[in-house]
């Protein structure tokens, strides 16, 4: 099983593109510090959250509140998901990046702090 991943940070937006090459590939359970959107671009997945499993078919936008553990399992080959969320909340309380983030700071941030708990 393999999940290819590309991460980009632009301004206040974090995007992780995940390519689930094979049915059965999983994005393991994790929790974000921000509410976020998962864009299911192609394929089908089972999303597990709050003790519930639900099947989703692309194209679909899924919204997960911060603090909710969730995971995905591909039900078919070549399933593509994108995780999209803020990195600053506007009041400075949950910020994980400076306002004027450079590409180098973004890369360093991704190494030190994966934006999940």
Structural commentary:
The chain is mainly β and 117 residues long. The protein has one domain (3-112): Jelly Rolls (Sandwich), CATH 2.60.120.10. Helices cover 9% and strands 50% of the residues. The strands form two sheets. The protein has a five-stranded antiparallel β-sheet. The protein has a four-stranded antiparallel β-sheet with strand order 3-8-5-6, with no helix packed on it.
Features:
mainly beta, 1 helix, five-stranded antiparallel β-sheet, Jelly Rolls, 9 strands, about 120 residues
For the residues shown, what is the average pLDDT? 83
Q: Give the domain tally.
A: 1
Topology as a string of helices (H) and strands (E)? EEEEEEEEEH
CATH topology name, in short, is: Jelly Rolls
Number of strands: 9
CA(first)-CA(last) distance: 24 Å
Name of the CATH homologous superfamily: Jelly Rolls
Structural class: mainly beta
Q: How many helices?
A: 1
CATH architecture: Sandwich
Trace the largest sheet across and list its strands.
1-2-9-4-7
């Amino acid at each position: 099983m393999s999940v290819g991943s590309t991460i980009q940070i632009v301004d206040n937006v974090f995007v992780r593109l995940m390519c689930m090459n094979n049915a059965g590939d999983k994005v393991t359970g994790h929790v974000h510090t921000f509410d976020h959107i998962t864009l299911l671009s192609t394929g089908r997945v089972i999303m597990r959250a709050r003790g519930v499993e639900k099947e989703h078919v692309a194209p679909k936008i899924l919204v997960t509140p911060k603090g909710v553990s969730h995971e995905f399992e591909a039900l078919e080959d070549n399933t593509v998901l994108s995780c999209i969320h803020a990195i600053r909340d506007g009041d400075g309380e949950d910020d994980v990046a400076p306002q004027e983030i450079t590409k180098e700071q973004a890369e360093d941030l991704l190494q030190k702090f994966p934006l999940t708990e």
